[in-house]
């Protein structure tokens, strides 16, 4: 088995960004979901309720500054905030603090999405956030990823899903994984407990339960019924639909496209 794709999402819910390599640490892949968009009350705003976020391309540079792009708008450089703290909340989880971005980002986001009052914030310290103790340990951290620092998806699992769907095949991008691999049986990743990607060890926390955001085409931002409709027929358990797995890094190091993937347990 080997890695066939690595992806980061510098701003949560914006366009997926392929990378040839990424530094993996206890809080995930460097540059992944370190920023997020919040409303005037500090609540996370995602593409679930604002699909226009998918049309924003975000990249971060070596200094940690952010670059935002969208059709019809000038590129905006957002320096990594050096100070400041505002309360923010992800879904119904306990509030945290984040550093507010340059106010110019608010006007830019309104122009890009058509929604006023949006703010961009940066996670200056992922260790402040606690994760689900049911499948994580002390020392596991994440910035603004949903439930774990990293997710992994097998190409064969996507291929099997598309065979079930039967038409209009979906890309792995619908599931916004960090790591895509090939060479395993469909859904084999569900049963793994420990793996190594290159020289970096990971625990496999649990499967990923999928939400309606996977039904939004990341290119057109149009919502459909797949893949949730088909996953509900074939991959439904405990009232949820499952696709991909959560990974928890047990070490640090650079992982690359082409790296071998070894199952240790």
UniProtKB/TrEMBL annotation:
Superkingdom of the organism of origin: Bacteria
Protein name: MOSC domain-containing protein
One term of GO molecular function: molybdenum ion binding
InterPro entries in UniProt: MoCF_Sase_C, MOCOS_middle, Pyrv_Knase-like_insert_dom_sf
Organism field: Metallococcus carri
Residue span(s) of domain MOSC: 124-264
Pfam (any one): MOSC_N
